[in-house]
């Protein structure tokens, strides 16, 4: 049988993809991240499905449950928040399943940064202002950053930065980016994106840290820094330009 790594989306239960919901409805076993995945999604599982909260489980325990379900002949839904392609800890699970000979499929989901951009009502890539988005985080004691991926280095690009897992360290983020972006650079923090308790903070590198601390935001948030967040005077894209040559319909 198959393990399905399913992106549950950023928080709102109705932001799971149609494919993800259909896979979930067909799986007799579901492992989910209880602290992050909306409980409403579990209602999509079959009534007799075995539901396993992985919030307090380690990698060995999670792998054992996936292999067990496979050996029992059940398809398995492994629900992760956001999209499995970034900051999801899916890579090590897939590596374990490869070693065990268990087949799997990845079903993408709506990532947190996309939900945050929607909350801000902003396109992150704007013609002549910014065409690059960098998804990153900051070094912590448990997980250091690879060489060359520190904020000081990434900040030299001037690209829009989207930081996950960094709200608790917002002072550090601001200090490392100020020399490259300037105090007037637009910045935003979106916590609990797409959920009923969503919180949106807008400002600049000069004041965003104070807003984050005043609001008590320490987790489940993304920090965005870059000029496209406040871009107004920019050239229209070539995509819909009247000057663009378009093929004639048959």
UniProtKB/TrEMBL annotation:
Lineage top rank: taxon: Bacteria
Pathway participation: Cofactor biosynthesis; adenosylcobalamin biosynthesis
Pfam families, per database record: TP_methylase
Keywords assigned: Cobalamin biosynthesis, Methyltransferase, S-adenosyl-L-methionine, Transferase
CDD domains in the record: Precorrin-4_C11-MT
Family from the record: Belongs to the precorrin methyltransferase family.
Protein known as: Precorrin-4 C11-methyltransferase
A Gene Ontology biological process term: cobalamin biosynthetic process
Gene3D superfamilies: Cobalt-precorrin-4 Transmethylase, Domain 1, Methyltransferase, Cobalt-precorrin-4 Transmethylase, Domain 2
GO molecular function list: precorrin-4 C11-methyltransferase activity
Taxonomic classification: Bacteria, Bacillati, Actinomycetota, Actinomycetes, Kitasatosporales
Residue intervals of the Tetrapyrrole methylase domain: 2-208
Record has Methyltransferase as a keyword: yes
Annotated PANTHER family: COBALT-PRECORRIN-4 C(11)-METHYLTRANSFERASE (PTHR45790:SF4), SIROHEME SYNTHASE-RELATED (PTHR45790)
């Amino acid at each position: 049988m198959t393990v399905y790594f399913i992106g549950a989306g950023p928080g709102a239960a109705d932001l799971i993809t149609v494919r993800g919901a259909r896979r979930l409805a067909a799986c007799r076993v579901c492992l989910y991240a209880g602290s992050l995945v909306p409980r409403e999604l579990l209602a999509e599982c079959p009534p007799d499905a075995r539901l396993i909260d992985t919030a307090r489980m380690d990698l060995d325990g999670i792998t054992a449950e996936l292999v067990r379900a496979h050996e029992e002949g059940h398809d398995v839904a492994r629900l992760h928040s956001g999209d499995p392609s970034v900051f999801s800890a899916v890579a090590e699970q897939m590596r374990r399943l490869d070693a065990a000979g268990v087949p799997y499929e990845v079903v993408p989901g709506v990532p947190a940064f996309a939900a945050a951009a929607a909350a801000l009502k902003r396109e992150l890539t704007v013609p002549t202002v910014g065409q690059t988005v960098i998804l990153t985080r900051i070094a912590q004691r448990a997980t250091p950053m690879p060489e060359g991926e520190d904020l000081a280095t990434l900040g030299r690009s001037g690209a829009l930065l989207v930081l996950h897992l960094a709200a608790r360290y917002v002072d550090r983020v601001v200090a490392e980016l100020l020399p490259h972006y300037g105090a007037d650079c637009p910045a935003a923090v979106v916590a609990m994106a797409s959920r009923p308790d969503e919180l949106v903070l807008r400002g600049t590198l000069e004041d965003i840290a104070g807003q984050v601390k005043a609001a008590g935001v320490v987790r489940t948030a993304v920090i965005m820094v870059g000029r496209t967040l406040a871009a107004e005077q920019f050239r229209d894209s070539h995509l819909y330009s009247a000057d663009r040559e378009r093929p004639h319909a048959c």
